[in-house]
Records
---
Amino acid sequence: MKRYITLLLCACLMATSMQAQFVEKEKRVEQPVQERSEGILRSLTKGLEYTLRAGFSLGGTSPLPLPAEIRGINSYNPTVCIAIEGDVHKRFGDWGFMFGLRLETKGMQTDARVKNYHMEMVSPDQGKMEGNFTGNVKTKVRNTILSVPLLATYRVSPRWDLKLGPYLSFVTNRDFSGSVYDGYLREHNPIGQKVEITAENPATYDFSSDLRKFQWGAQLGAEWKAFSHFNVYADLTWGLNSIFQKDFDVITFDMYPIYATLGFAYAF
């Protein structure tokens, strides 16, 4: 009988010890989660909100208005452009201020019909040439950009916010290149020597190194609170300085990046 009592006491002590170890381990797991949740709650009481967002962009790089040299658009491909962003939002009643960091791509592919379009190109037969081109121009734009939006916000209703303000961008990867075909080039001026350029033997150009690294513009957007932590947003960004450097004079008009983004956001 004493043996059974001794075994029972040992079993109870082991069970108690195991339970204590399990409770301690559970506390260690829950503690970081509780601390993180408490940190977010403290931020919310100060009017700070944190948001992660991702979306797809559609747009292009264009002169405004279209110059007379561009006679028509044969084709346009917006390509796949994405935007990933983290924001901090401070509210002051219905008004607020939002800033963040956005990694995005902006690009397009176009085929345009032009006349007396000033260009610099490289021909397989003639080498480097410059002058006024009449024919078709293919253009590929693909830039990777880090942007900082600085936006004023206004809460229209418990579910709707409007955003407006400037953005600053740094271009980390630049590509502005293409080819010309089915036309001719007047070298140096509109009445210069005529050089035929065919579709079978096109001339190429690459102005990637002539793009600005620093760009800025305006951003307008709206955001709808679909669920407790899930939002849907739409933004329009409009570049206000030309994509080309100040001393670049091959293309004789300014070009601006104009893109709309539609995406989803998670609010902490």
Note: The longest strand covers residues 127-157.
---
Amino acid sequence: MVNIHEYLDYRRFLADILAEKRAIGAAYSMRAIQKRLGLTSNGYLSNIIAGRSKLSLELSSKIGDLFGLSESEKKYFKTMVLFSHATTVDEKNHFFEQLLSYRRVKAKLLQSASLNLFSKWYYTPLRELLVMEQSNDYAVLGKRLMPPISADEVSQAVAALVKGGFIKKTEDDKWERCETSLTTGDDVHSFLVVRFQKDMLDLAALALTTPLEKRDISGVTLALSEECLPLLKEEIRRFRHRISQIAVDSGSADRIYRCSVQLFPLVKGNEDVSSN
């Protein structure tokens, strides 16, 4: 039986509950459901599920009634719709936190490795710090982070990293990094990656007060052609690979840094101006 609280993507929920209902009989055929919802276009629901159309809040209420959702489930379904349709990071974050307020959803999220890694800015540096220091003193580890976090936050983060398969204890009780494949293609994962990147940019702004000998924050403004853009992106990719290799070859690590490279437009292209 489809449980709405196991979903963060309303389109996936719709696809699964429609499949479940259609298996019951003709009363829940796509045509019958669309008629009961007052839809004139036969392909409307299919377009919504495929991401070609957006679900209105009015129709989301009708769908909740049609499938017999409780008031709490209707509210959750509406929040999924609002989260999916939000256009800014702040808006998405607002509705995402509402989704997390459901305890059953939190339990489901803990089963997703990629959600764990990107849900907090300090998960990735803490993973590296655990391997580097081989320490179980969560209070000290929390104070090492910039900005610092509490021992309880470190404890919860370690549990999430272990459960997500990003770190583990070896037979001789040593922390060891695990390589886990990440999937960021769907709406929720993509949002969390964007939020994580925004958190990193906020930390970069705080780092402006760090002594110059301990950081490098610089940039250049470029005038370039459209054909040049993929070449620059490829060069950045190679640069990230080179500095990663330098770090690996440097020997025993005693500190953790974040290296971020940003390439973004400051002026609209002619095609963007003419289309508005």
Note: Residues 4-101 form one domain.
